[in-house]
Structure formats: C-alpha cells, structure tokens
Amino acid sequence: MTETSVEPLYAPAHPDGLPVGDGWVPVATTAPVRFPYAGSLVAHAPLGDVPLAHTAVEEALAVRDEVGRLPSHVRRAALLGAQAALAAERDGLEQLLVLETGKPLVDCRVEVDRTLLTLTTAAEEVARLHGETVPLDLLPSGEGLLGFWTRRPIGVVVGIAGFNYPLLLAAHKLAPALAAGCPVIIKPAPQTPLATLWLVSVVREALARAGAPRAAVQLLTGGVDVGVALTTDRRIGAVTFTGSAAVGHRIARDAAPTKVLLELGSNAALVVAGDADLDAAADAVVRGGYYASGQACISVQRVLVVETVREAFLQRLADRMGQVVVGDPRDEATRVSALIDERSTHRVTAWVEAAVDGGARLVHGGRVEGGVLAPTVVLDVPAGSDVWDEEVFGPVVAVRSVASVDEAIEQVNASRYGLHASVFTASLETAFDAVDRIEAGGVVVNEVPGFRSDVMPYGGVKDSGIGREGPRFAIEELTVTRMAVIRPRTRRA
Prior knowledge:
Blueprint: E1 18-20, E2 23-25, E3 29-34, E4 41-47, H1 50-68, H2 72-87, H3 90-101, H4 105-125, E5 132-134, E6 146-153, E7 157-160, H5 166-180, E8 184-187, H6 194-210, E9 217-219, H7 224-231, E10 238-242, H8 245-255, E11 259-263, E12 269-272, H9 278-290, E13 302-306, H10 310-321, H11 342-357, E14 361-364, E15 368-369, E16 372-373, E17 376-379, H12 386-389, E18 396-402, H13 405-413, E19 417-418, E20 420-424, H14 428-437, E21 442-445, E22 461-462, E23 465-466, H15 471-477, E24 479-486
Parallel strand pairs: 7-8, 7-10, 8-9, 10-11, 12-13, 12-20, 13-18, 17-18, 20-21
Antiparallel strand pairs: 1-2, 3-4, 5-6, 6-24, 11-23, 14-17, 15-16, 19-22
Helix pairs in contact: 1-7, 2-4, 2-6, 3-4, 4-5, 5-15, 9-10
C-alpha cells in the first residue's frame, strides 16, 4: 500500500494550500506529518517555498498601513472572536495536538487553555496601548512646548515557533502582533504545522468578521530556506523566534539590523535547600521534569540538593518515579510518551550513556521501550556532560549534591543558559537571596521552574535569549515610541 492510499488520522476543516494574502494559495508539494508514538500518518501538510515566502512578505507590506490604522475596537474584536471560535473547537484541537506532537493529552489540554488565555489577554491589552506626556520645560529651552509620546506598530512581524507547543507559541507571536497593529507571518516547525494552520484559519476569519484584512495574518511552512527568506528581508519590522540557541543566534546574525526577539533553550535548575519541604520538592521534580515528556525549555533538568538532605530527598524521589505513567499519549493517565522523532530519542539516550560512561550513576530509566524513553534520573553527573551543561529536551533529570545553597546558586549561574530556576526553602532570607542572585529571567520559589503564567514577562538572559513574551510585554517589544514635540504658539527670535 502506498502512503498516498493510507487514510490520514486528521482531515483539516480549512481550505487546502497555505493562507497567503487574502486567500489560500495552492501548493505543489506536501509533507507527511506523523504521530510520534505510532508513526502513523496524521495528514499531508502543505509545503511552502521561497517564492511564496516573498509573496507573503509583499502581501503583508501591502496591508501594513491599513493594519496599523485599525481602530482599537476592531483589533480587540478580532482577537476575542478568534478566542471564542477556538474555545468552541477545543476538543478537536486537543486531539490534533496529541497526534502531531505526541505530547500527552493532559499537556495538550493545558496548551489549549493557555492559548485561549493568551488571545484574551492580548485583546485586553489593546485598551492599554497608549503613551504619556513629557515635561519638556525641565530646561528653559522647553518652556512653552507640549510633549507626548505614543506607541506605533513596528511593522511586519515574522513569528517562528517551536514544535513542542505549536499552538501556544504561535499565539504568543500572533496575538501581540495583531494587538499592536502589526501584520504577522507565522512559520510553524516543520514537524507540527497542523494546529497552527487551524489557529491562523480561525484568526483570519475573525479578522474578516471584524472588518480587517485577512492578510494581516499569514502562514508559511517549509524548510530553512523559507525561514531565511522571511527573516532576512530588510523590510521586516521584527522577527520573534522560539527554538534552539544555535538557530536563534544564526537568525539574529542574519537578520541584523532588524529587531530580533529570541526565546531560546535552557537547562532549568531546581535547588533543594536544607530546610526545604522534601516531599514538595520531590513532587516538583517529578511533575516539573517529565511534563510534555521533558520537551519544555523550563522543565526540571538540573537538581542541586544540599548534602545534609541528599539521601532523604533521593529516597522520596525514588518512591515517586514508579508513579509516572509511560505510554500512549492519547491515554488520560499518560505523563511521558514518545519524543518528537527517533533522532531526538537517539540523541537523548546517547547523552545519558555518555554521562554514565563518564562516572554518573543511572538510578532510574535510561531504557527505550516501544519507542518511548522511560523517565530517567542520573546522579553525580561529571563536569562537561551534555545532560548537565546543555538542554536535554527529554525526560531526563540530573542530580548533584552541594555543600550549601550558596554553592548551589554558583552552579546554577555557571550555566550558559538563564531562563527559569527554582528554589525550595522554608526561609524567606534564602528565597530573597536566590531571587537577587540567580541569573535567570525568572526565579520561582517553592514551585517548579516550569511555572509560567501567560500574562507575566517571560524570557531569558545569556544564551536563553533576549526580549520578553507575555502579551503586555510582547506588545511593547513590537511597537516603537514616537515622540511629539509641539509649540502651540510660534516663537520669534
């Protein structure tokens, strides 16, 4: 049986082709999207190319001024309309996310919830997009002048999303851009374009109902060449990217001097102080280390335990590892399933094996059964190991003991990454010291480092990126201030 004769698991409700300009443009090529857990065909996704990328940029530029002048009520209505339409289809979205990402159903439900909140919050921020007056007469030369600034759209935005949360990551680029008055071109990850196509289709129809051009939101699939064509066009106002540090750095270099916002990787640390609630800390490691099968940039990867509580903590962690359900992501109980593809699974297992060969001790997992890497714990990982220094992006937690919280913070900061970290402690002094000293975009006390509210500023330092997401903060990134200086009455020398 040929692949074209296999009945796909998903049939899109939107038109064929890609949403470019005001309509859907037919494409000559498709690419299979496969269910990572079983390898079965989910759908044939339309595949864009460089000429179509150039067309999308031209279409976005053609409506840039119109979108920038859209009244606040139109932008708000479009975002709220899209939110309502997606909410009505949430069950289908959840099932599609499971199929194209292989992520457990429980995590896909959270993704849809967060996407809906992101759209709502972006709509609310439209009402708060304003400037303020400036006291120009602080110097005598400013006497008689009126000064105020406003925020203006930065222009066309290119948003590139990762595969692990395709719907949510696209929403965090699309919704703030629209709220700011910017046309946006979304490029999803090649492995996971389907839910993002659904999102863009819904948003475009909501725009049309509100009286705005559909071309305000477009989507291009394709390979690296398509991404390069989109990000290196000097007429683009901003590029916002979620993905690996290596790719993000290359985009920043190639796109310069265009503004680039980067939400990159990490190897999030969790510190267990001597006075910590050890049961809560162990729960957090399991909950925060294995959600989304570990394919989250702020999942728990490094655990630093003060030596005095090491054995008690490890016993609690061991007691909980057997409770992590592994298997089919469509099952309500599953917490860990297949990674996005076999290459990722091979990479993660190779990193674990290298750490063990270097002296680390494997105390749980490390095996692949039925294509799924079991939840894994390694102890005393030596310096220079990838499972400690780099981003694993899989269900692996590495544990080291330290003499003190001070030493733990030093080791947290020794990483080239700095997205989120957390500290478990009963001491306010320790908590505030950690918030003050840990070099990360977010420091979380007595909760998993993977906690993220979609309304808060989110982003990293060092190799974890630049700029901030969260609708309010992304809108600021995607607008520029325009200063107005007015002398109501002309002055003559």
